[in-house]
Every structure is written in C-alpha cells, then in structure tokens.
Amino acid sequence: MPNHSVVRQRSWLFTPGTQPDRLLSAAKSHTDISIFDLEDSVSPADKRTARNNLRALLNAPADESFPAFAVRINSTATRFGLDDLATLLDSSLMPQFILLPKIESEEQVVQIAALLAEANRSAALVPLIESARGLSAVSAIAQAAPSVTALMFGAADFASDVRAQPEALALQVARVRIAAACAQAGISAIDAPCFAIHDVDLLKADLTFAVTNGFRGKAAIHPSHIASITRAFTPSGDRIAWAKRVLEANDQGAAVVDGRMVDEAIAREAREILAAA
Length: 277
Fold this sequence. Notes:
With 277 residues, the protein is of the alpha/beta class. The protein has twelve helices and ten strands.
C-alpha cells in the first residue's frame, strides 16, 4: 500500500463494508482513496459481518491494483467503534487512513492516536466534523496529534444537528471554518459527498465552492462523481504556468505577477499548486 504522505487526497470514495467487492469498482473509478465504511452504510445487524470482511482484507496479501485505502470506523463512544478499533490494532496490515466519525474534542483523537502508538501501529487520522460541538473545537481537533493529516466535513449529520436544510448558509459557514482550521494546522480539508447522485449542476456548484474556499478534496458515495472531483482538484495548465511564473519572480526578489504582489504567501500558494500537479 502506498505511504499516506505521498497519496493524493483529491477524491475519496465510500464503499460499504458489507460489500467488499465494491473495492474493485472503486479501483476502476480511479479514485485517489477508497474508503471501506463500517459506519453509516452498515446496519447494526451487519456490523460484525462488515468487520469480519475488513479483517479478511487486512490479513490478505496486498493488492497493488487497489487505490490508497481508508477505513471509517464507528464512533469509539460506541461498542461498535471499540470493536472496530480492536480489529485494526490486531490486524497484520493497517490502512493508510482511519476516518474517525462524530469527533467533538481533541481528547477523542489523542486517545485513539495513543492506542495506535502503544500497539506500534501507524495510520493517518481523519476526524470528521459532524456537529456544532465538533465545529466549535475544530482548530484543536485539527492539531490534536501529528498523525492527523486531514479533516472531513460530515454535512448530513451536521445539518441534522443544527436543524439546517441542505442549502442553508450554516453549512457553507461550517465548510469555511473547517478549511481555515486545516490551513492553520497545515493539513487537508476534505468536503462532504454530494448526495444528489444524478444532479450534475449541484455537484459542479459543490466543487466550485470547495475549490475556491480552500478544500483539497471531496468525498463521494458513487463512482460517477470521481472523475469530476479529480478534475476539479487538479490544477489546470494555466494555474501551473502561473505558479511557475510566481516562483521564478520570487527567486528574483520583489515582483508583481498578473497584478498580484509576490510575497511568501503567494509563493507558498504557487508551491502547493505545483505539488498538487
């Protein structure tokens, strides 16, 4: 499995833990990261089956044809989540990423990171911000442990928690706050899926907002969204050319490129564009 530090994080595709064969579809979609989901897509009656599927997958020989691999466990405030975490700690292999749902404090992340370290297990942690309480602690959560490499927005649960409709301004404000916290911590902000699978215009609007407000990637619940997501978060030729001009000008001292004064902030933006490209 690729090291998480070199894995692109533009597109994340959820696959139900009860249907491990969906991982083949994930690979064919060319998603950057395939998420084996033990939480929302799995009913309580099927949690054990999904967990057994995960155990078999992690203990099998690695398949290099698969994309980078993530697991969303259940909340560790539940027995399901504790059993999920125990399965990961006992497995011979680890996913590159572990998604942590319903995170509302840095202490929750610190505890999980400590358990992984004690078991000599290494994985990047991706807390999900899904409530008003989680949003109020978002900066602390983003910086809770060195293994936190991204935050993901849980739009559906957040909307329910704050009694907002899907198009409400409250969700846009939450996205902006999450992106800002990630920028401060130097990690990636990952947007929630677009749940309207066949609404091309809504997906496009979602992606435009995410790209222009500092997100580095977006999750999906259907493979048909992956190409659009990947394209949106891949710098265009014009952006790459601009970044190169900025860095060339920066090497020569103070300068203006396309009407913008080149300072360290602009140079950092340019370096990030070239890294993403």
